[in-house]
Amino acid sequence: xxxxxxxxxxxxxxxxxxxxxxxxxxxxxxxxxxxxxxxxxxxxxxxxxxxxxxxxxxxxxxxxxxxxxxxxxxxxxxxxxxxxxxxxxxxxxxxxxxxxxxxxxxxxxxxxxxxxxxxxxxxxxxxxxxxxxxxxxxxxxxxxxxxxxxxxxxxxxxxxxxxxxxxxxxxxxxxxxxxxxxxxxxxxxxxxxxxxxxxxxxxxxxxxxxxxxxxxxxxxxxxxxxxxxxxxxxxxxxxxxxxxxxxxxxxxxxxxxxxxxxxxxxxxxxxxxxxxxxxxxxxxxxxxxxxxxxxxxxxxxxxxxxxxxxxx
Length: 312
What we know:
The structure is a single chain. The chain is mainly beta and 312 residues long. The chain folds into two domains: 19-171, Sandwich (Lipoxygenase-1); 174-310, Lipoxygenase-1 (Sandwich), CATH 2.60.60. It has one helix and 18 strands. It has one helix spanning 3-22, and strands spanning 24-31, 47-52, 58-60, 74-80, 90-96, 113-126, 129-137, 148-150, 159-162, 168-173, 187-194, 206-212, 218-221, 235-241, 253-260, 271-282, 285-300, 306-310. The strands form three sheets. Strands 1, 4, 6, 7, 8, 10, 11, 14, 16 and 17 form a ten-stranded antiparallel β-sheet that branches. A hairpin with a 2-residue loop joins strand 6 (113-126) and strand 7 (129-137). The radius of gyration is 22 Å and the shape is globular. The protein starts with a helix and ends with a strand. The relative contact order is 0.14.
């Protein structure tokens, strides 16, 4: 093969991998009272199978990577999608766990897992633009799809969760009927998943600051927890309207800063955050600015009282 052709192939494969990585399905699990044990054996590691319309299924084995997911914790997995997949191709997902020896239980204690909630989103990037959809939110369905308990006895039979045929748009441009939307359509919606260390409240509160690419102006939202305590492994939603601020679009946003307003020193409040999402709606356009999960994403302690997220 000529060097020129080889280089062309390498570049094509490189950009193909990048493109594939940009399109993805993300599945968020909230564990209930019974944890998912990470013990390094396939018998305790669940699998997820993505189902498509007229396309082969996509199986991801041992998606917890043999790690323990504690009770009431929030964890997220990402599954890359091929560039040929479009939103209408996504049909459903199946959860199961393949036993290494299905004729008899393992000699170790069989693991059970309670799932309190499942949220599934799909992200597509094309020509520099991002579109993100919510395919499934198990608690908003009727009848509710969770809680669900994965036991040794039922785990080999796949549990199917169908996706919405009209998915919710999380990021992208919406077609508003009115050309000049009223102020109440300007808002943020934040979701906080607290980790193992709580947010105390009182003078120790959550604050969000939004910064912009070509302006020193900022949007500040103080005391999102209303001075109340947020206990460990709980989840909270904060909704705030945006004041009149006509000089920007959602694409002008540069960073989102999450602050813990408490001080340092002896007796300072520490705070672990395992999940943080922030969605903004402004002048007919909706964009999810932050969507992060971790164990934790960040620990606010001592003088480390700010976590900055770069907006893509």
